[in-house]
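Example record

The entry below shows one chain as it appears in the dataset: sequence first, then structure tokens.
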Amino acid sequence: MKAKAYDFICIGGGSAGFNAARVAAGLGLKVAVIDGAKQLGGLCILRGCMPSKTLLYTAEVLHHARHADRFGLKVTGARADMKAIHARKKRLIADFASYRVSALTGGKFDLIRAHAHFLDPHTLELSNGQKLRGKHFLLGTGSKVSTPAISGLRDITCWTSDDVLDLDFVPKSVLVLGGGIVACELAQFLNRIGTKVTLIQRSPNILRDHSEEASSVVQQAFVDEGIELFAGTQLKQLSQDKRGVTATFLHDGKVVTRRAAHCFNALGREPNTATLGLEAAGVKTRADGQVIINRWQQTSTPHIYAAGDCSGPHEIVHLAIAQGELAARHAAKVKGLKPVDFSLLLNVVFTDPQLAMIGALESDLDERGVKYLRATYPFNDHGKSILMEANYGYVKVLAEPKRGRILGAEIVGKDAGELIHCFSTPLALRATVRDMLRAPWYHPTLAEIITYPLEEIADQLKS
């Protein structure tokens, strides 16, 4: 049978693949999306952003109810009904996924429900026996949970984030292995629904990709809420018996042992590329399977592109979308394109307090030898946050010392993920602190806190 030919073939129908296909089809290319997952929708909708934020917000509501006395309120008997929470989450995610399925099956491109691997740089063989020929390809296969070489890890029953997001009961106790975003968000969720949580982190600080100053605020909030947290550890052994899972690790020079009914492996994810036959296509990867790309999303085989988690450099949905769209336009030879601008990197951690940053971190600027002005202001000295009992955290602004152009911002605190967007447009427009201060800031609002570090830097510019 002759292989069916396409101008643009997307392997994976998640955020990167779907949006690349949408744009490519809109530019007149003949497009196919290949997705062999049991459910259509991609990681974000099905097992990532949307289910996790649904559960995190539910846990936040429960947390406020249990601590209502801080506001002079009496709320008794507040507890997690996990059957109802699980049912609500499933209903919401089914609605979100149905929109994506409708778009994938809407006829603008062909959707083929199968897995694929390369036979050569222009030919795919599918798990249904079909073969496809393509002028251009987009790898958008995402990532999967990784299992590091820790003694006993492969021998015990370990939950992944998929399992935690699908719980319909309150676990008695859980060992959380890892201190990244997924580990921290879901550890706090488990703790707030009533689980005894022990978090074991290898790095000296949780959320190691963020500043130590910011991560220490979240870490203190975790400890204050009752999470037993060990950072700067070395896991030595994991074992399991009828009573649960035991972890043995080094901490502060001592051997420590902790036991729990369940174990959650949140030690990271790795690119989901092992089964694609990339060698046959001449596509080079790093040791962990991450596809190597240039600024136009091209791999070492120029007509094959990659976007999203399988290529990085960041596992963030809006970047995966931008990368996929750029790849489609580049393949269609659209003129005047610009690469994805990582100087505007925006990142949010949905712990409570939330952690958000945009642009450059201080460590980035220090490493590059860039001079800057810095100003911070704490949430526990701001009227609106005080009356909300939202006292953890701060706002930090970094600016160029001559004109005060905004270089970056970091917010740890109540609704930081919403507040950080106050800096999105100014950064994109290369605005200054004085530009931002020309705008009105309503009193009393949380957003008003941003004006204090802006004013501090503006005052330094006057001198």
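Notes for this example: The chain has three domains: 4-144+270-331, 153-267, 343-462. The two ends are 77 Å apart (CA to CA).
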